[in-house]
């Protein structure tokens, strides 16, 4: 599992997280910063999406333009409740994405995660 973890060291993400952690940060400011962090994280995790080149017409001349290679639309899966606040920023960058939700809590004695909710879009074969 640790091989799938990507730590984001981007200066803006680090700065916004620090502002969120300050004791005096208002709820409105926290939500705004969380949305911005979601947008920045979406930018980082989509950085290596494959591209294809398609002909388009620009006002100046035709060109081969880079476009996302996959015909499938993305699914963003939020871990309730912590991930909910990041969704607005992610969806601002990738508005055609569908959203799924997973609910987990830790058993207070064993600390093992317990799944209490799992809902993904029905058309997952058509999604990335």
> How many structural domains does the protein architecture include?
1
What is the CATH C level class, in words? Alpha Beta
CATH architecture name: 3-Layer(aba) Sandwich
Biggest sheet descriptor: 3 strands, mixed
What does the radius of gyration come to? 18 Å
**Strand arrangement in the largest pleated sheet:** 3-4-5
Counting H and I runs of at least 4 residues, what is the number of helices?
A: 3
Topology as H/E string? HHEEEHEE
**Oligomeric state of the chains present here:** single chain
Task: Give the strand content.
Answer: 25-35%
Q: Gist?
A:
The chain has 128 residues and is an alpha+beta fold. The chain has helices at 11-21, 27-45, 84-93, and strands at residues 51-57, 62-68, 75-80, 98-106, 113-119.
Overview of this protein structure:
The model has no long low-confidence stretch (mean pLDDT 91). The chain has one domain: 3-Layer(aba) Sandwich (Rossmann fold), CATH 3.40.50.2020. Helix 1 runs antiparallel to helix 2. It is globular and about 65 Å long. The protein is an alpha+beta fold and 128 residues long. The longest helix is centred in the N-terminal third of the chain and has 19 residues, at 27-45. It has 3 helices and 5 strands; from the N terminus they run ααβββαββ. The strands form 2 sheets. Strands 3-4-5 form a 3-stranded mixed sheet. It has a two-stranded antiparallel sheet with strand order 1-2. The protein has helices at residues 11-21, 27-45, 84-93; strands at 51-57, 62-68, 75-80, 98-106, 113-119.
